[in-house]
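hey so u asked for the seq, here:
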Amino acid sequence: MSQIVLVGLGPGNPGRLTRDAWSILSSATEIFTTAAQHPVLSHLPSSAQIVDLADVTPWPISPDTLAAAVQNILDLAIQRDVIIAVPGHPLVDEPFARRLLDEARMAGAVVQITPGVSLLEAAWEVILPGSPLPVLQVIDAHAFAAAYPPPGAPGFSPFAGTARGLDPTVPAALQNVREPAALTSSLARLYPPDHPAVIVSFVGEQVRTQSTTVAELQQQTVDGWACLLYLPPVDRLADLGGFDTLGYIVARLRAPDGCPWDREQTHDSMKKHLIEESYEAITALESGNWKSFAEELGDVLLQVLMHAQLGREEGRFDLEDVLRAVNAKLIRRHPHVFGDVRVSSSSEVLRNWERIKRGEGGGTPTTLGNIPPSLPALMRADALQGRAARYGWEPPGLEHLQAAVARLTSNCGDQRGEIGALLFSVVAVARRLGVDPEEALRRETVAFIERVESVLAALQGDPAFESLPEDERRRRVAAAFRSSPPESGRS
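ran it, structure tokens below
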């Protein structure tokens, strides 16, 4: 294969072109370029033929066309040397050049890189003159918008697995901006509407800036042969959608000058809060109020962060240990997703899960003993029976439940034991019917509350009711319940 030469054209002023770049370009007879309007090209000897890559390969570059465009150049390089001139620096400013380098390396092609002054450097000289270039997040604008569309927008996938396109608490530069308005909805998920932004346009040999805001990008247009967008950082406490912000807040609350109540907490004192917040989240879920459910899930997440912070202070573990453990476990226990194992059903997944867990325990068979005893009794019975079913236990049928009722009503033997057997049998029947007994009991309890409150509200609406003797009030309440039977199967 011949040689591919990537040459950086710099930010536009011919005086900023490097000597090496000028030597290569001025002696070339054919130059491919990703920026045919770049002003340096007009200063080259007329003997050089300038070929716009848009004329010979898929363009403009996007995630869908990038691979084909790169392959076209690699195919061409098999026949002869190829010189490609790109704006700025080949390793900084041009996604096509970076992808070409990756593909060329895998193909064994020889690539020579001739650096240039980057567009980022030139842009920073006019954004904050005299200030050193900060640590920047640098991302291609098209790639950002494609990878981080708002929910419901074209291209949005809930299974992409990418939570955020960039960290708004770190200065960011979006390169190759063509339509600022196309970035607005994605940026609005990370920045407040009035957050400042600077559009930097390269027009001819000049570098121009335009100050705006994230919301106003919707009305902005750009000109010139290149454009980038600079976004200064937001304050950590303003990044309310950031996971790291929650970690920062928890650490701040626990700091010596933090909140006295939070500083008094221990793992033991917070146990009840973890349970309570979990149940509040379940209650919000069952209410169908998704905003409330999201808020309650945040409270559950807070408990995890608090325990991780306590572990960090004690030197026992930190949040990274928590995440490392759960990530490794999920990958390890899902070889049918992250490996080459094939499964045909969810029951097969569960069997594999148990086998993997036994391997994690050094080959010790998994028993029922690791079902948490702190679970509510009904939920724990269901979990125990579910675990036993994986080993072949079959839940008894309705006749077993009827026998348990008969033993209880015979008024002989250990009634507490018979009640326990009856409840355990109810759980077994529920499992056979595919019903979650904990949820079923919770729903029935809610229905009972609604019925009682309805009956009492009807009676207490009568002013004369409260003046009746206690026995008469109780008689009328009982009569009201009898005349207002529950729905079939209800209390």
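The radius of gyration is 34 Å. The chain has five domains: 3-117, 122-238, 244-315, 367-435, 438-483.
lmk if thats what u needed
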